Every structure is written in structure tokens, then in C-alpha cells.
Amino acid sequence: MQIFIDESGIFAPHKGAQQWSSIGAVTVPEDSLPALESALSRIKSAHHINPDKEFPKNNRPDCSSNAFYIFLEELNSAGCTLQICATNGSPLEDEGLERHRKDTGPAQG
């Protein structure tokens, strides 16, 4: 089993509005790695990206596009799973986070 993890954001309360952070993981059975590579190559080609290059930040696949849907179907058929968690660290959460820290005390080990 291979696990690929990526994150984006700062994962902390932030003064700016709508400060989203996310983390995602894809699990891939060892024998499905060739299928994953082929699916990734096809979605990159559909977006005119060299298969050897990463998606540039300004050219991410539209999650409502047919190519993206096909990519997800191919991952599913290969036995892959996808987990995603996203949070919005707004300034209002700062006070709640401090209250939570005081209420729960130090971690017990």
C-alpha cells in the first residue's frame, strides 16, 4: 500500500477572512500503481500538462469537469481511496481555541 499526502494552508487561526487549510491523502494498493500513473497522465493530458510535470497552481483541474470525474472513477476502479479534511481558521476561532485549551488542560500520556 502506498499513501500520498499533501497539505495546503497554515492550520491556525488567522486574522484574514476565509483562511482555509486542507489536507488530503490517497491510498493506493501496490498493484494499482501503474493504473494510478496512467490515470494521472490522462488527466494531465486533458489539461495540456506534460505528464512529467506537476499541475501548476494556476491550472488545477476543475472538479466539475468530465476529465476530473473520469480520473476519480479510474482511481476508484483501481481500489484507491481518498480522504480530505478542510478547516476555516477565522479570527473568531482564536477565542474558542484558547477556551478549549484552558478547558482541556495538558495532554495526558
SSE inventory with pairings:
Blueprint: E1 2-8, E2 20-28, H1 33-46, H2 66-77, E3 81-88, H3 92-104
Antiparallel strand pairs: 1-2, 2-3
Helix pairs in contact: 1-2
Which labels suit this protein?
109 residues; alpha+beta; three-stranded antiparallel beta sheet; 3 helices; 36% helix; 22% strand; elongated
Characterize the structure shown.
By secondary structure, the chain is of the alpha+beta class. It is 36% helix and 22% strand. It contains 3 helices and 3 strands. The chain has helices spanning 33-46, 66-77, 92-104; strands spanning 2-8, 20-28, 81-88. The chain has a 3-stranded antiparallel sheet with strand order 1-2-3, with no helix packed on it. The chain starts with a strand and ends in a 5-residue tail after the last helix. The model has no long low-confidence stretch (mean pLDDT 83).
Short description:
This protein is α+β, with helices and mostly antiparallel strands.
- Taking pLDDT < 50 over at least 5 consecutive residues as the criterion, the unreliable ranges are none
Strand order of the largest sheet: 1-2-3
Q: Calculate the mean pLDDT score and round it.
A: 83
Helix content: 25-40%
Q: What structural class do the secondary elements suggest?
A: alpha+beta
| Biggest sheet layout | 3 strands, antiparallel
Termini, distance in Å? 30 Å
What oligomeric state do these chains adopt? single chain
Binned strand content: 15-25%
The radius of gyration is 18 Å
User: Which sequence of SSEs, written as H and E, runs from N to C?
Assistant: EEHHEH
What form results from the Cα inertia axes?
A: elongated
Total strand segments: 3
Number of helices: 3
